[in-house]
Amino acid sequence: MRKNKGITLIALVITIIVLLILAGVSIATLLGDNGILSQATKAVEKTNNATEKEKVQLACNSQMLKNTEKGKYTLDIEDIDDLQEELNSLKAGAKITEGSNPIEVVFSSGNKYTINNGKVLEQAEVGEKVTGENKFYKNKGTAIIPEGFTIVPGCDDVSEGLVISDNEGDTEAEGQEKVSEGNQFVWVPVEDFTKFEREAGYYNGTKQLCEFVSDTFAEGKNYEPKGDGKVVNEEASTTVKEVQEMYKSVKNNGGFYIGRYEAGAEGGSYVEGSGWSEKTKMACKKGITVYNNIKWGNSMNDDTGGAVQISREFANQQGYTSVTSTLCYGVQWDAVMRWMKDLENPYVPGKTYIQDSTKMGWYSDNSGDGNSEHKTGIDIGNGENNKTNKVKNIYDMAGNVYEWTMEMSGIDFRVDCGGCYNTSGDVFPCSGRNGHYLSFLFSSIGFRPALYVNV
């Protein structure tokens, strides 16, 4: 008899199963998250992004070259229209965001690129030290993160006070042991540069007179407050250059940094009747002795010595190359006050923090009970009361010690802002001003440094 050859049903099923498995593997290889098509799509996206970034950088380089030929060696928000023309000439299909500061370029793809002084910046990562060059960070606002600094985990919300540190290990993130060993600074956003000007503060619940306005001081000159154009003081040449660079930086970068803490004293010793010894180093750290009993400077037009010189030398002593350190300017203090102006004081109904700082700083009613040594960044109530002396992540702008600024008051005085441990928060709130002779030394007067990003 003739026999028919074939396969069994079991063999057929096994063959089908094997084919299905092979087909599944092939489909996964082709369409999976890390499949061939996905990898190809990512490669195309990466190439497009690189092309977009290259076009932005080419536009910046071209505009920088034109600026250099005109004797201008920066690229800032005044060049926005010309930069847009450069982008158009490259057929980039990109537009500069209106009113962006720092400059932001948006492509039709939705990709955005941030420019800082002619360079396309990379995005900074929280907790990682910025190396090579400055970066930017966005979280409810935009901040320029200087080279050599780290965004402190747990303090990365620009609208609530983004904190940077020169110690990469600092953290305030939930679930982690808090570390605060470095010098720390808070980014103060200045989104509208036209409002970067001097403002009247409060004294005893009422508005003070604004003696000198900031747009005139930007020239390095202090004018008669009556508006008659009379110059009552020409600043020293070093201050003129410094204030012009500071204003330029704030305008181009959309903000500046202020010390998270009042200046502290590290090392050295206090010399009775003459303040701290020359060997004393300044720091902007939590929980150290406040740098008080320090004069402003040598004379009205001699800005060496005292808090002015100590603040200016700080950046070099720390090895910072991307920022310049200064004594806080009055216009910078007022920018912080505008930033905080809508925050209510929960202990004084109907009053804001900048109007009345009662119980929101170390004043005469509580300093002896919790911070009699006037150290920097000590929480009220051992961390209770919502840490009310930390506002926008900045400590002690109200209370503890008055703080020297670069602002002039009258002919022979410089301004110190905020309150101190032997006053009250309603009379001397954080926005308050005093005037003292430049050589005045007392335990109730200290200072706070500020940083501006180099341009």
Question: Could you name the key traits of this structure?
Answer:
455 residues, 2 domains, six-stranded antiparallel sheet, four-stranded antiparallel sheet, 8 helices, 26 strands, 21% strand
What is this entry, summarized?
The chain is of the alpha+beta class. It is built from eight helices and 26 strands.
Commentary on this structure:
The mean pLDDT is 87. The protein is an alpha+beta fold and 455 residues long. It folds into 2 domains: 85 residues, no CATH class; 261 residues, no CATH class. Helix 2 packs across helix 3.
**Cα distance spanning the termini:** 99 Å
Proportion of residues in extended strands: 15-25%
Round the Cα radius of gyration to an integer and report it: 28 Å
Which strand order does the major sheet show?
7-8-9-14-26-19
| Extended strand count | 26
Q: How is this fold's topology laid out?
A:
Elements (H helix, E strand, L loop, with lengths): L8 H23 L4 H34 L10 H10 L4 E3 L6 E5 L4 E5 L2 E2 L14 E4 L3 E4 L4 E2 L11 E3 L18 E6 L12 E2 L2 E2 L6 H4 L3 E3 L7 E4 L2 H17 L1 E5 L4 E3 L3 E2 L3 E2 L4 E3 L22 H13 L4 E5 L2 H11 L26 H4 L19 E2 L2 E2 L6 E8 L3 E5 L15 E5 L7 E3 L1 E5 L2
Helix pairs in contact: 2-3
